Every structure is written in structure tokens, then in C-alpha cells.
Amino acid sequence: MKKEDRLELRNPIKDLLRMDRIPHIWCPGCGIGTVVTSFAEALRKSEVDLDKVAILSGIGCTGRVAGYVKLDSIHTTHGRALPVATGLKLANPELKVVVFSGDGDIAGIGGNHFIHAARRNMDLLIICVNNFNYAMTGGQVAATTPRDANASTAPFGNFEYPFSLPYLAEASGATYVARWTALHLRRVTKSIQEALGKRGFSFIEVITPCVTLYARRNRLGDGLNLLKYYYEKSEIQHGADTRTLDISYQGKLIVGKFVDKEKPTFLDCMNEHLGKVLGDKYQPYGVKND
Amino acid sequence: MKADPKGVLAGSHYLDGDYALAEGALAAGCRFFAGYPITPSTETAERFSERIPSVGGVFIQMEDELASIAALIGAAWGGKKVMTVTSGPGFSLMMENIGLACMLETPLVIANVQRGGPSTGLPTLTGQQDMMQVKWGSHGDYKIIALSPDSPQECFDLTIEAFNLSETYRVPTFVMTDECVGHMHEKVVIPPAEEIDLVERKWYTGPKDQYLPFKPDKDMIPFMVKVGDGYHFHITGLTHDDKGYPVINAECQDVCVRHLNDKITMNADKIIKTEEEEIDNAEVIVISYGITSRVTTRAVRKAREAGIKVGTIRLITVWPFPEKRIRELAKKVKAFVVPEINYGQMVVEVERCASGQAPAIHVPHCGGWVHNPDDILQAIKEAAK
């Protein structure tokens, strides 16, 4: 039997990857690849037209995702994937636009873009891989680092309050908010699938191991140890009040789908409002063949 | 390709420069505008937001200028012609993604209605202090195209020109106007759509799996596709090969960076536009642009009355700089006089090109108002000695 025919050696998502760019840059034990697998699986299951799906990333470890996924893909600048995605979606409303990036990119340097895209209910799907630190640059403290955790620029432990991303997303106007860990791969897949089927600002946070930096610096062991932590400390609470989702150092991880509601998107609002005010003078935008 | 009549407000109008920028954009087929309010450029965004609903397109006020230019990049790759407008502080914020736009060879137009700087400076008063920033402001080596209108009519005309250049060379193109021209009301004649020539984006039409987003064509400019057409292409701000894949080494960097620069340098003769007057026997040549060229007119008239042989060059294209022409003239004239509303920017370029063959006398003005023509006259007299 040829090597590529052996089931266990065949890459089940290779059709969705740029195989000419593999091997990827991620460390052994990293969770980003598993989230990519979930994403690919969700795309397959949801049967969306892959020609009409675009993926954008910012900068960082997760920022490299756009470079490995075989869709129209844009690797932007640090924190700016969201406004680039906004422009893309508005230029071509038939697209399903996905932003796949890290916590530093989306909630740190891109925080302002994040809250405003959510406020407008821009029709985007955001997959945010949260590994609690700036990994690409060597494990610096982030807007998501739990208090007391150690980071290379918080060598005596972090004393800042971190963001709770689902709370931030909901407060800013997101219509779909979920949090999972890299252990909950089927749940992540299902969430992505659900979000792909929705219109509006969808936000999925996936807590993932950063073995090389966050875990090593905090002496938390390898990838398996972190998955064990997720297994022991995560608790599924669908519909939980997003104000209760703070993450403490090695503390409880409340996961689940917290928000799932319908609300007109930016373009819905624009078309409805301008149509109402301007009547026949208004040229509805992005409504079939525009 | 002719303009779409939907965006063309044909007729004679009494408009300020800011409004004329918006009308130029609409006439050029711009259907996506993302911006953030900033004095003295805001009227352009206001005008666009009022006009676009009946033309068909999108205006969005973004959360800041970082986002405005980012949205432009996304929308351009979504297939639209796109524009934003700003002034000094906003221009500084845009520098990051101007670099990305250059790296991704993305056609887009940015108008800068300049005000006095540095920092918050003079929000409501004029300046020409971003002329070097437009060229060098983002990190790394790249080249852009910048135009400088001297009237509301030119704000209209040069915005269309900016779109055409931007599409031709796949490069961010700038309309570097200033508060005076931006807020000046004059007659603006908008021709009928069939008289407006537009450059269509250089669309790729070959086999889907063979598209290379950065492979230079014979004219050095790569073809474009838009997101959603099934090419499954990748583009990145990292140093990349023709395929758009990152390649982090000195060899690829050499090819990539040379291309970004050479495609403008090699086409400079086709891009550059200047307006010359009485150059042939001139002893002194005044080089100016934008509002300063209008102030210069009076100084030059007075100098000629005083018997001085003065020629003028008005830079319509500021970048790329008309290097060859200045080099050639430097051999013939006593001196150049360069008035500009800054403490010495384009004069450095004149000096560089003149290369010691003729002095470049700068007439500085730190901003807030235009020159007193007598200051320019004084410099001309000085130069003629």
C-alpha cells in the first residue's frame, strides 16, 4: 500500500489547505492547528460555496492561518484584519468573511476595531484563538493574560485585569458568542458551522495551549497537561451570563454558547433606513447582482 | 472606458475643493468610501455620504483612520474603486496600512487636505507639510504617486487622474491638496460622462489555478482578481513571491522591493505632469505646487515687470518628482526658487536634482497662511543677481 493511501496518514482536510506551504510554523502541542481542523470540518459540513468564503488574519501565530487555508485569503497587518474584512464584506456582500486571528491581534491592538465591528453588527465571523499571551514575539503579557500568570514582560506575574472576550463581544453588540477550548473540537466545529449559517457579528473564542511560551514559563507542562486542565476545569454553561465568564489563573473555564440572536446587520440597516428616508432615490446596495 | 453617468454630476458648479474631490471620486467610479472626520477634509466625506445613496455604493465612517485605510484595502480587493480623505494627524495614522497597500499592490486613492503641523498643529489653517511624509511616511522602501491640485477644478480633475494612475500602476495614489484649496469656492465644470476617460482595472482572465497576484506583466504591473471569484489566492504584507506566499530571505526581498519601486520609476515619464511657463530664456525658475503656485503668479508678474527673466514650473505630479527635467534645467539657469508652505521639503528634492549646478533658494512658510508674494519676489530678485 502506498503511503498516501494509508488512512491514518492521509490528511482529511488537505483539500482546504495550501499543502505547498506545509509544514506550518506552529509548535508541537499548539492548539491553533486543531482549531483550523475544526474550521475546515465546519466548512465541509456546512456545504458553503468555498469560492465565496474569504479568510483574513492579522499578525501573530494565529495570524498565519490565512496563509495555510486554501480560500481567498489575506494576511493583513497587526490588529487590522477586522477593518479590512469590513471593507471586503461591504464591497462584495455575497461573501462569507471570516477573521481568524489571535487574542493579541483582535482584543489588544485591534480592540477598537473589534468593538466597532460588533457595534455595527457587521456580518463577519470572528474566530479568536486565545492562548493568553503574545506568542509570536516570545510570550509577552496580553490583554487576556490571567492575573498572577507569568509572562516575559510580566516576569513577576501579571497584575492587570484581563478582558473577558465573550463579555466584551456581547456588550459591543455581537449576535453570536461562544467560548470553547482546544479540547472541545466537535463543539468548536459545531459553533463555527452555526455561525457560518448566521448573518451578523459572530464571535467564537477558543482557548488553546501555548506550550512553548505560556505553559513553559508558568510550569504548566506540555500540551497534554493543558488539555487535562481544560478537561478538569471547563464547565459547559450554555446561555451563561457573559458577565460571569472571567478567567482566573488555572481557574474554572466556563464554556458554551452564550449568545445566539438575530439582529439586522450593518447592510440591512443601511438599506432599510436609506430606503425609508430616500424612497425611490435610493439604490439598494448589495441586493443581488449589485 | 467611459465614466458611468450615474456618478457624474455634469454641468457648471460653484464648489469648494473638498466637494470637488468627492465629485471627482464619484465620476471616476469610486463606489466605496471609508473615512474619519478631520478638519479641514471632512466636507469631502460629507459630500460623498450625501451623494452615494442615489449613485449606488457604500459610505462608512470608520472608528479611526487606521480602520479607514484598512477598509479601503479590503474593499479594493472586493472589486471596488475606493477612496478616503484625511489631514495631517489622520494621515499619520494611515501610514501603517499605506505600507500594506503598497506591498499588496492595491489600487486606492487618498486625498490629504493638508493643514499646519506637527501634531495637532493648525487644524483650520493651511500647510504643505506632508509632502515628504506622503513619500516616506510608511516604513520600508516603496514608491507612490502623488498629485497636487491648485484649484477646486483640479481637485475634481486630478482625483479622476489619481484613480486612473492608481488602477494603471496598482499603487496607492495621493491627492495632496491643502486647506486653502479645500475650502476655496470656485467654478468647477464637470463634463458629461462620455467625455471622462477611465482606466479599468487590469483583470486577470486566465485559468483559475494559475493566477499569480504579484507576477509582473510585460508593463511590470501584475493582474488583479477579486475576492469571491474562485481563485483561492493568497496575499500577505510579508515579503512574498509572485504567488503571494511569504518568503523570508534576502533574495525574495530584493525582487519584491525592487519591483515595488521600479514599476513607478520606470514609468515616471508616463506619470509625470508639470506645467511650464517661459522656461526657454529663463534665468530663474520658480518651482511651486498647489496653492503656492497661485501666489507665485503674482510674484512672477512683478519680477517680469522688473525685467527679470523668470520661468515657472508647477508640479502637478509631485511624486514621482520630475527629476530629469530639473537636472536638465539646472545646467541652464542661475537658480531655482522654491516657495512652499513648509520649512523645506520639496526644495530638498530640487537641490538633489540640481546637484550643485544651480542653487535652490527656498522660500519657507511654516503654515497658517499663504506666502506674501513679496517674499517670493524678493527670493527671485536674490536669485537673479
Fraction of residues in β-strands of chain B: 15-25%
- Rg of chain B, alpha carbons: 21 Å
**How many beta-strand runs of chain A?**
10
Main sheet makeup of chain B: 8 strands, mixed
Helix count, DSSP H or I runs of 4 or more residues of chain A: 10
Q: Share of helix among residues of chain B?
A: 25-40%
Biggest interface, CB < 8 A: A-B, 45 and 47 residues
Assembly state here?
heterodimer
Helix segment tally of chain B: 13
Strand tally of chain B is: 16
Classification by helices and strands of chain B: alpha/beta
How are the strands ordered across the major sheet of chain A? 2-1-3-4-8-7-10-9
Shape of chain B: globular
Terminal CA distance of chain B: 51 Å
Q: Helical proportion of chain A? A: 25-40%
| Pattern of helices and strands of chain B | EHEHEHEHEEHEHEHEEHHEEHEEHEHEH
Question: What is the CA–CA distance across the termini of chain A?
Answer: 52 Å
Name the poorly predicted regions of chain A.
none
Unreliable segments of chain B (pLDDT under 50, ≥5 consecutive)?
none
- Nearest-integer average pLDDT of chain B: 98
SSE blueprint and pairings:
The complex is a heterodimer of chains A (290) and B (385).
Chain A: H1 32-46, E1 53-57, H2 65-68, E2 72-75, H3 81-91, E3 96-102, H4 103-109, H5 111-119, E4 124-130, E5 133-134, E6 140-141, H6 165-172, E7 176-181, H7 185-196, E8 202-207, H8 211-217, H9 223-233, E9 234-236, E10 253-260, H10 266-278
Parallel strand pairs in A: 1-2, 1-3, 3-4, 4-8, 7-8, 9-10
Antiparallel strand pairs in A: 5-6, 7-10
Chain B: E1 11-16, H1 17-27, E2 30-35, H2 42-55, E3 58-61, H3 65-77, E4 81-86, H4 88-103, E5 108-116, E6 122-126, H5 133-136, E7 145-147, H6 152-169, E8 172-178, H7 179-183, E9 185-190, E10 234-236, H8 250-265, H9 268-271, E11 274-277, E12 284-288, H10 291-305, E13 310-315, E14 317-319, H11 323-330, E15 335-340, H12 346-354, E16 360-364, H13 373-384
Parallel strand pairs in B: 2-3, 2-4, 4-5, 5-8, 7-8, 12-13, 12-15, 15-16
Antiparallel strand pairs in B: 1-9, 5-6, 7-14, 11-13
Helix pairs in contact in B: 1-2, 1-6, 3-4, 10-13, 11-12
